[in-house]
Records
---
Amino acid sequence: MKYISKPVKRVDAKEKVTGKALYIDDIKLPFMLYGAMVRASHPHAKIVSINTERALRKKGVVAVITAEDIPGEKNVGNVKKDQPVFAYDKVRYMGDGIALVVAESMEIAREAAKLVDVKYEVLEEVFDPEEAMSEKAPKIHEDGNIIVYHKVRRGDTDKGFKEADIVIERAYKTQFVEHSYLEPEGVIAEITENGTVKIMGCIQNAFTTEKDIARVMNIDISKVQIIQTIMGGSFGGKDDVMTVMAARAAVAALVTGRPVKIVNTREESMLESYKRHPYRMYYRLGLKKDGSISALEAKIIADGGAYASTTPFVTWRSNVQAAGPYRVENVKVDTYGVYTNNVYTGAMRGFGSPQVNFAIESLMDEAANELSMDPLEFKIKNGLRDGDITATGQKLTHKVSLIETLKKATEASNWKEKRILLKKENEKSERYLRGIGLASSLRGVSLGAEGADAAGVEIKVELDGSVVVEMGLTDMGQGIKTVIAQIVADEFGIPLEKVFILPYDTSRVPDSGPTVASRATTIGGGAAKEATRRIIETLKDAVRETMGVKEVEFKDGYFLSPRGKMSFKEAIKAAFSQGKPLNAVGWYKAPPIVWNEEEGKGEPYFTYVYATQVAEVEVDTFTGKVKVLRVVAAHEVGRAINPQMAKGQIYGGVAMALGYALLEEFEIQKGMPKTLNFDNYLLPTAPDMPEVEAILVENPDPLTYYGAKSLGEPTNELLAPAIANAIFHATGKRLRELPMNLEEVYLGRKLERG
Ligand code: MOS
């Protein structure tokens, strides 16, 4: 292999660094109109009337679009169809959109949006997810406030707790987090001359959007075309929020007969877009004196906000991974997703794991402390190994790399010496205390029981030996275009420059599901390899026919036969002249999984990845500031198709998790966001970054092509507990609530913003 496992340069690097790449806001169509939203004035209220007269009188305003203009279904949603394109009966959070003012310029549209007069009847609100679960709470949707309930059951926890020598009970809490993609949401919709609805935009999961657009517009899916423009980041964030936006633009394009663009300002983006779920997690753990775990119980409550979004799936991942990478024979987990009048919550890198990992990995550190064991020793004793059975009852048949990641990360961070040395040095220090902490995880690869897990890639070979590729999975910056190009170039034995990847367009490739769950390399890579295999088979036939031979072998870019060899290009020409097809669709379906939702048991993912991160911190005890000095991150990836980009995922994931751990919180009080731009929303920047040592552990998985597994999300789910454990090691203070900002570290509680 010339490109696979090599640090190949990104295929889309040049267009981005030269500024040639067109993002949605760079695109302008002839006769295009601009849309601006009228938004809710209350977090929970009945809409009594909408008066658009004053707005319509403003010069330059073309139309004001409301739910009444929708030709089809009024609601959309990834799992439940509970989210209105335009709020019609009531509003459920401050980001709800009621009407779209469409005008000749964005400025006019925004000004006129202020002139739409909406009358409300305010309803009783609920902002606390645990209060929302009570029978007495106001109902946000007709069928009650519980969005979803999942469970895990293994063994007998009553028996397990009876056998325990020590039982610890702990509660952990996490916050709302904004994705903070640099590019805010944007779409352009137009109705083409043949009646198709064509949408361009920074849409992460265009096939999901496509299906909802067909329902809203009351047309066939075949009449919807979604073209993904270059994405300025997503992190799971440009999913259903984009569907709602695309649907609004499509309805406006239908009503006005002109293309309509909607682009959010940063403030609108923060107000409207869904966030990472805040969790409340109540754990109970039974321990034996020998250091083993006898029982684990957890009750997990996720604040889903106003709409279900992907809450049913996010909480499902939390649920099946709630016991972490440990051998526990008696497990009982109950997980709830709940509606409130807060901003809705959905997919965000990690997808339900950063929250439960903060809890379980803090808890395991607390357990080790209770037993007077070193956390590393405790994890090596209880960590999953080859052939072990997980909390959901799954026997692990692949190579279980947890212990390997623990060993590599702790060796590279000098764990054993530092645990003693730092404590000693702290005795001499008045103000600054240092500590070192670790966290580990297992993570299910790809979608698991969330849905059909397959994808397609189409390849067309041209007569000059160059190759065009179309794929059903998207590049939002993570680099899948480069990975697919590496695979195609290597399988064909051609230079990387000969592979050209077309923009992503739902009308040209088979529905490959969403580009989520760190599945693109594993599933899309499989599809690309399969497509190349099909083409090579055709070319072999062409060589057989030309040479009059039976045996043909394809090696290093040449077809070898007993009567001589033919190059890749010659074989293509031969195939063409023989009337053979020069294109193929490769389809890859993930190995099967089993999940019994009623019993809370099964094999939720076909394989897992494992990781360990170690953080070394310095706590300023005068101010509460935590400085992360060094992070060692050892991630098992199966096989790294592009090791440089894989390390990039680790650096980025660590940066993002550092924000989650120490700085970031989308503050919201009584449904009102307190932070609508980055002046108030603290993101980590370069000076906050520690030295990061990224270690790739490669144990190729026999069930996947090239043995490749997942990496994007695992990198982002471990640092918060590693830092919490390091703070405990430094100060003896246990922090159980994120973010561990100055107030939390110094006072042990959060201050409220006025
Ligand atoms: Mo994701 S958070 O699986 O887009």
Note: The longest strand covers residues 293-305.
---
Amino acid sequence: VSLNEFSLIQKYFSSSGESKGVTLGVGDDCAILDIPEGKQLVATVDTLVEGVHFPVSASPADIAHRSLRVNLSDIAAMGADPHWFTLALTLPKVSESWLCDFSQALLSDALYFGCSLVGGDTTAGPLSITMQVLGTIPIGSGLTRGGCHEGDSIYVTGSLGEGAAALALLDASVSIESEDIRSRLLQRFYRPEPRLKEGACLRNVASAAIDISDGLIADLGHIGKSSGVGANIEFDRLPVAPFLLGMARQACLNDWILSGGDDYELCFTVPRRNKDFIEALIHSGELNAFYIGEMCKELGVRCYDSRGQVMELKKSGYRHF
Ligand code: ADP
Ligand code: MG
């Protein structure tokens, strides 16, 4: 990429619209950013590798959206607000049309989320996208995995299982007739909705939070482990879109819902004293979340079926192409 590395950066990655708190952005040795008084900086980074985290067939716009949004999902899980990001791009070759589509999609999505591109690195090699997102939280209000106790209520946002269903569609292990459903699932995979609004409204209310990237059981397990408690959840309470129900055998469906990754919903816990507050937010429609169970003393995660039997859980394994 060395030949026109500088013009490439200049052309595709130098403007990013609104840039609050940026004293110095793309173009110097480092960016200089202003952290507002009373705020802490939160930082996260994720790498997406072609053929591992997205299929070789993915369009540049899809790759851009997914890369930014999976990072924003981590910001949401902390209850933070995103402000800035950096981009380390490894490209097999310089394709102007690829770069044009990628940067347009990236910068418009970034603008939508109020997050501006402030720097990066460009190298040659197998296609890989690394983004680091920086955000802020009011001092002391970050939602960690480690703050919950026995008796706290467990909630999840949105709906579960569609990330895994989308993967099954992409690797052709299920076939879907309905164009509507196909596009909903692809949208879910390539443009997951980071739950930033939800995360922010859980500050000082939730006792722990995580975003669901590895599957509900695994990620709720992380909360339990960090907090030194366990979890009991009820399968029938898990939010699942009706269209998903007919798509696969029950056993497969259960795996999608419980152990499939890539949903990017939030799983969070609420102490007794804040439960009425959360329930009121849910009833008023301000928060799209569902009560699914309770944290308990006994370590590990158990899911109960409609007859009150503990369900056998598949360990969420490595998948992704
Ligand atoms: P250095 O050698 O000092 O690391 P680079 O040549 O890597 O500088 O980058 C020059 C400038 O361009 C830096 O400000 C860097 O942050 C920015 N930059 C490089 N690649 C990208 C990219 N893919 N997206 C955004 N900014 C980039
Ligand atoms: Mg560099």
Note: Residues 69 and 192 are 6 Å apart (CA to CA).
